[in-house]
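Sequence, please.
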């Protein structure tokens, strides 16, 4: 896409390849998306779906998974893992130095950004399979004060005092949820298309949108065993500093995506486990659990896209 084009650029950024694939499957399925609009998706130069091993071959020019164009709007779906060139796929530093700059600099400055993925939900009641949407982000670096007994090499960490430990809000992104409140058919259309996850499923999977929800990103985790203490430390810190903002999801990357742009922003998280119960609820059937949750988040995104376009028109008016 030429950097001098006049169309609005909506950037959808998924973290993992196994999150991007279900999303694209939804966008290509006319029974799962609204019609008309966004019915013609053009594959990117490297194809719609994942290659074995995740990352695209080194030396490949960065490109989106797919693109949809309507008058005045171009929507691009990207996957961070595609452009990590074999780096540790949980490394915040690799994402911030390799993949995210490649994505955000491959065209004009985005006019709207959606962070997309799977996450935990901080509640004793299971919401597994539900989709949480919000507009705020909070980043936490658990290794600023590493607990005794934890072995971690900080040389590969990413940190930024202007973003980490700060609440990042998006008033312009909140407009989408205002439009959603006036479009009950959109919420109904999402909920009727959601699928229960296989493990510890919510009684009924639903879309849970709230403009004041925070996506809490726990940074620099390369040893999955550290999630046991790090996620709880991140949640405690976020709630202490932002007591009036509820945490809607806990993951690793939505906040990193948010730091790349001041454009209107929202996140969509497919919930795969209660916070602290990864091993019990997600891990035993991780492929099916993750795919289903990402599919559900994709359904929510498909029905939000017309509202995102509407919000951009309102901002331009």
């Amino acid at each position: 896409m030429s950097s001098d084009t006049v169309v609005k650029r909506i950037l959808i950024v998924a973290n993992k390849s196994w999150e991007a694939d279900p999303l694209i499957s939804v966008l290509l399925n006319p029974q799962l998306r609204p019609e008309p609009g966004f019915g013609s998706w053009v594959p990117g130069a490297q194809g719609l779906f994942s290659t074995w091993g995740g990352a695209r071959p080194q030396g490949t020019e960065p490109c989106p998974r797919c693109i949809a164009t309507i008058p005045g709007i171009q929507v691009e779906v990207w996957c961070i893992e595609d452009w990590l060139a074999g780096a540790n796929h949980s490394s915040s530093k690799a994402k911030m130095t390799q993949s995210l700059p490649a994505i955000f600099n491959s065209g004009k400055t985005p006019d709207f950004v959606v962070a997309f993925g799977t996450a935990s939900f901080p509640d004793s009641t299971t919401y597994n399979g539900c989709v949480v949407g919000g507009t705020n982000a909070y980043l936490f670096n658990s290794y600023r004060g590493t607990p005794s007994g934890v072995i971690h090499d900080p040389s590969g960490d990413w940190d930024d005092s202007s973003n980490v430990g700060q609440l990042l809000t998006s008033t312009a992104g909140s407009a989408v949820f205002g439009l959603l409140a006036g479009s009950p058919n959109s919420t109904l259309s999402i909920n009727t298309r959601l699928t229960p996850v296989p493990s510890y499923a919510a009684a009924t999977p639903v879309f849970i949108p709230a403009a004041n929800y925070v996506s809490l990103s726990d940074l620099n985790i390369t040893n999955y065993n550290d999630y046991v203490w790090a996620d709880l430390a991140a949640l405690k810190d976020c709630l202490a500093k932002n007591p009036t903002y509820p945490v809607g999801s806990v993951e690793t990357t939505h906040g990193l995506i948010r730091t790349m742009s001041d454009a209107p922003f929202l996140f969509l998280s497919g919930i795969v486990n209660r916070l602290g119960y990864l091993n019990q609820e997600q891990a035993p059937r991780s492929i099916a659990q993750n795919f289903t949750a990402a599919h559900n988040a994709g359904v929510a995104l498909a029905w939000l896209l017309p509202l995102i376009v509407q919000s951009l028109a309102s901002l331009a008016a």
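Helices lie at 17-28, 92-104, 171-181, 184-191, 227-241, 254-259, 278-282, 286-316.
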